[in-house]
Specification:
By secondary structure, the chain is an alpha+beta fold. Among the domains are: about 250 residues, no CATH class; about 70 residues, Phosphorylase Kinase, domain 1 (2-Layer Sandwich); about 190 residues, Transferase(Phosphotransferase), domain 1 (Orthogonal Bundle); about 150 residues, de novo design (two linked rop proteins) (Up-down Bundle), CATH 1.20.1440.180. The protein has 29 helices and 41 strands. The radius of gyration is 42 Å and the shape is elongated. It is found in: Endoplasmic reticulum membrane. Its EC number is 2.7.11.1, 3.1.26.-. Belongs to the protein kinase superfamily. Ser/Thr protein kinase family.
């Protein structure tokens, strides 16, 4: 009954206030008077730029409707004077003074100086100012100026239409400054401001605007969805935004950002999922932004056609700013800074940004007496202690007779400006004056609603209090119902029931679902967007519980689906289940002891990990190869996402790939992922491949690039191939990296070749995951020795001019260090002379010697065996330590034979596919040359002598001739 009574009471008050609001004549007339014209007007915003133009833009599309040219907002000198240069801010008229090449902010602005003038500063500066007000009416549809009203005269250009004409008020402030000691030093400025500050600022505006500091580039976002609505380039710095309504201008808030920062935002806005949150849109509280965490305040000093100016703007960590500490002469060393740990520095100190140490002459204003000004971004200056004393005072009441004493208030110093906080009050007073009855009706409704909320909270408190008296509790959920987290509130232990099954919950733990529990106090790690990883249990097994905010439930489900498909591989983190409550999603994952980043940075972790470093690298590559074979691109490979599991019952540890939150599947029939709004710019700064930033699509090579950075990071104990974090991503885009620290490794040539191939700027030229696994860097000693023997057998009987022999003997003297006989020990040298002759500069003969000594190892003299060491490790190291380029050289040369059955286990399919057309072409050329040579030999061979048949003689004729006397 009580609940029904309160409900009916609340509904009655709500209906009563609504009827009063609707029946109010003023309220109804105001709303009826709002026709199509006002709706069109309210959707128009006016953008004021420094050159004096007022542009009307459509608030939905950003399309320019019309332009009105007025006087420039700011006119100031463009020259720099010693000790007498002021930089005005065109946004609010605040002033900055340049002294000794250092900027300081004055505690007053131009309008305040004009109101207080004539006045004198404590630094000897004399101030004089004037003010001029003017009203002008415009047609909101065309922007045509209809009428001008001022104290001097009233000009009417065309007949004014009271229904359509909107009057805008503008105030012109002129201020002059004089040095009382030096009359040659003067400074003048004119500042124009519109009268929008007299009306309440629109706080419920559905859009959020950002403007650049040095040109008129504007970005507009939807506050609720975070979607970018439109962009516009006005070519001149923006100084103010107004909402155009029938009652005048309403000032709109906007953020000023650096030009380079705006370009980065515009370039990445469709690819970075985190930009809406970074920019402060699509948040629970629109006024609460994370700009201070991502951007930093700075002062931009610029130059326009109307003089020098300064605007406070937000910049990112890549923007170079000038520090006043480095622009002046060297100073005495100050006190030592407070000693802070690295963790305290990250928590309390802002991140460093680059500082210009040399003055670029192209952006410097200099004077003959040594004063100079740098155009660009400066560290936000400190405020000076300057004050001004007014020289005249308002006289209260009527004037007294001549000779009487006028009581004047004591002089007051005009110091730092305190922000006026009367906007809310003026807005409430405006509602009360224009619509009193709806105002009071709204108050009554809010009061009734407050009583209802208090009553409902009290009722829930009573129910919770009665529930807390229970000794234990059970939850029985049917399949398909939503699961919620529960925890026991008993002193020692509670019980948790699921389908009448009781599970004990340790004190301080939380239970989600039937089998999953976690400890909120035992945090294993944190991620972006509120993701936290806790230690927990799943069905009695220790697991890591990853908690994801419900707003990102789509990503949590996608991660769970990808894990279900890929966690059968031993080097992909195992997935157990996913539970949910009203606020979060919980993923139960395999518990690991450390990440690869912990392994590199913490020595105690290295002592507890039993797996070799090279095995960690190979297993991580194996897991990545499995993902790529499953058509999955990880997109966030970094040392923190390569984990080392707990030791198994056999004491074995494994390296696994984790964090599938940014993974994407390559669709069937495609080879890449398009970079759209849904896909976004994925990855972690410093580990992102260059094509992610500059290409329209990405694919598997992005993971290979990140893995190459990880390899170098691990092999060099924490060094990144692209340098320090500040310039790392820029170096990645430019392809500037160094691998000089690999020279300390025994296999430096193999490591250098592997990582260089993985960091290639061209994605198509990078190795695949299978090719990385087949690289000789990961071969065991047995496999390397067997490879040398197989190559030696292959080229033993080959002719010297055969393709494979020519490849092996190319640059042979570099490979064998001039002559390999000079690098081996005397015992082995003498043993080689006993059997056959070897060429000291031939790689093929070196391989033959290694093969023969390996096959006849037991027959070698004792001193030779001691020099060579045991097979395979010491024997192999004997030769590779003397000839470090040998294995890589032979591996590259013998790619020609990768398609042969003997070498298929040494090369990946990618190498065979790459070499197949080369081998085919070379074989075709060889065959053609042989045919031409055969034809040439046949053509040059001597012709055989013709054999003539002997003549048969007639014996009868011979007889006749021999015996002529016969007859």
């Amino acid at each position: 009954m009580r609940a029904t009574f309160h409900l009916f009471t609340f509904i009655f008050l709500l209906l009563f206030s609504s009827v009063i609001c609707i029946s109010t004549p003023g309220f109804r007339n105001d709303h009826e008077s709002i026709g199509d014209d006002e709706e069109k007007t309210s959707s128009t915003i006016l953008v004021s730029t420094i050159d004096g133009r007022l542009r009307a833009l459509d608030s939905e599309t950003g399309e320019i409707k019309w332009t009105l040219q007025e006087e420039p907002v700011l006119r100031s000198p463009s020259a720099v004077k010693q000790g007498f240069t002021f930089l005005p801010n065109p946004l609010d008229g605040s002033l900055y003074v340049l002294k000794n090449s250092s900027l300081k902010k004055l505690p007053f602005n131009i309008p305040q100086l004009v109101h207080a003038s004539p006045c004198k500063g404590n630094d000897g500066i004399l101030y004089a100012g004037s003010k001029k007000d003017v009203w002008f009416g415009i047609d909101p549809k065309t922007g045509l100026k209809v009428e001008t009203l001022s104290s001097a005269s009233a000009d009417r250009i065309c007949p004014a239409n009271q229904k359509q004409t909107i009057f805008l008020g503008r105030t012109e402030y002129r201020v002059s400054m004089f040095d009382e000691k030096n009359r040659g030093k003067t400074w003048n400025a004119t500042f124009n401001d519109y009268s929008a500050h007299l009306l309440p600022e629109v706080n419920t505006w559905p859009f959020k605007h950002y403007a650049s500091s040095s040109h008129g580039y504007i970005l507009t976002f939807d506050r609720e969805t975070g979607e970018m609505r439109w962009e516009q380039d006005l070519k001149q710095p923006v100084v103010a935004l107004y909402l155009l309504r029938d009652d005048g201008l309403h000032k709109l808030p906007f953020e000023v950002m650096g030009k380079e920062t705006m370009e980065n935002v515009a370039k990445n806005i469709f690819t970075v999922d985190q930009w809406p949150t970074v920019l402060g849109v699509n948040a629970a509280d629109p006024q609460t932004t994370s700009l201070t965490n991502q951007f930093f305040p700075a002062l931009f000093v610029g130059e326009s056609s109307f003089g020098l100016y300064a605007i406070e703007a937000l910049v990112d960590h890549q923007t170079i700013t000038y520090s006043p500490k480095l622009l002046g002469p060297p100073l005495l060393e100050g006190p030592a800074p407070i000693a802070l740990t690295e963790m305290e520095k990250e928590e309390y100190l802002p991140p460093r940004r680059p500082i210009i140490r040399n003055i670029p002459p192209s952006i410097t204003h200099k004077t003959s007496d040594g004063e100079y000004l740098l155009l660009g971004y400066h560290d936000r200056p400190m405020m000076t202690m300057a004050t001004i004393i007014p020289t005249r005072y308002p006289v209260p009441g009527p004037h007294k007779a001549i000779g009487s004493t006028i009581e004047r208030p004591p002089p007051q110093l005009l110091g730092p400006v305190e922000p006026q906080k009367h906007e809310d009050t003026s807005f409430i007073l405006l509602l009360l004056n224009n619509h009193p009855i709806p105002f009071y009706a709204t108050l009554v409704t809010m009061f009734a609603l407050l009583l209802t909320v208090i009553w409902q909270c009290g009722r829930q408190w009573d129910q919770q209090k009665s529930t807390s008296r229970m000794d234990s509790f059970e939850i029985v959920n049917n399949p398909g119902e939503s699961r919620s987290a529960q925890t026991s509130k008993q002193s020692n232990r509670g019980s948790f029931g699921w389908a009448n099954r009781k599970i004990e919950i340790p004190e301080g733990w939380m239970a989600v679902g039937s089998k999953l529990m976690y400890s909120p106090s035992d945090i294993l790690g944190t991620g972006c967007e509120g993701t936290v990883v806790y230690r927990g249990t799943f069905d009695g097994r220790e697991v890591a519980v990853k908690r994801v905010v419900s707003e990102f439930v789509k990503f949590a489900h996608r991660e769970a689906d990808l894990l279900r498909e890929s966690d059968t591989h031993p080097h992909v983190i195992r997935y157990f289940c996913m539970e949910s409550d009203s606020q979060f999603r919980y993923l139960a994952l395999e518990l690991c002891i450390a990440s690869l980043n912990d392994y590199v940075e913490q020595k105690e972790v290295q002592q507890n990990v039993t797996i070799a470093l090279r095995d960690i690298m190979k297993q991580a590559t194996d897991g990545l190869a499995h993902l790529h074979a499953s058509k999955i691109v990880h997109r966030d490979m970094k040392p923190q996402n390569v984990l080392i599991t707990m030791a198994s019952q056999r004491g074995e540890m494994r390296a696994v790939i984790s964090d599938f939150g940014l993974c994407k599947r390559v669709q069937p029939g495609k080879n890449s992922i398009s970079r759209g709004i849904a896909s976004g710019l994925a990855g972690t700064d410093g580990w992102i491949a260059p094509e992610v930033l500059i290409s329209a699509s990405t694919s598997y090579p992005v993971d290979i690039f990140s893995l190459g950075c990880i390899f170098y990071y691990v092999l060099t104990s924490g060094t990144h191939p692209f340098g320090k974090s500040l310039h790392r991503q820029a170096n990645i885009v430019n392809g500037e990296y160094t691998l000089n620290k690999l020279a300390d490794l025994d296999d430096w040539s193999l490591a250098d070749d592997l990582i260089s191939s993985m960091l290639n700027v061209e994605p198509l030229h990078r190795l695949t995951a299978d090719a990385v696994l087949n690289h000789p860097f990961f071969w065991t000693s047995e496999k390397r020795l067997a490879y040398f023997s197989d190559v030696s057998d292959r080229v033993e009987k080959e002719e010297d001019n055969s393709p494979v022999v020519r490849r092996i003997e190319t640059d042979a003297r570099i490979v064998v260090c001039g002559g390999w006989r000079e690098k081996i020990c005397d015992a082995l040298k003498e043993d080689l002379r006993k059997f056959r002759t070897y060429k000291s500069f031939s790689v093929r003969d070196l391989l033959r010697a290694m093969r023969n000594k390996k096959h006849h190892y037991r027959e070698l003299p004792e001193d030779v065996r001691q020099s060579l060491g045991d097979i395979p490790d010491q024997f192999l190291h004997y030769f590779t330590s003397r000839f470090p380029r040998l294995l890589l050289h032979v591996y590259k040369a013998t790619e020609y034979c990768s398609g042969e059955a003997v070498f298929k286990r040494y090369y990946s399919d990618d190498v065979r596919a790459r070499m197949y057309p080369i081998v085919e072409e070379e074989e075709r050329v060889r065959k053609k040359i042989k045919e031409e040579m055969a034809n040439e030999v046949w053509a040059r061979a001597p012709k055989p002598v013709e054999q003539r048949t002997p003549l048969k003689l007639d014996k009868r004729n011979i007889k006749k001739k021999s015996n002529p006397n016969t007859d």
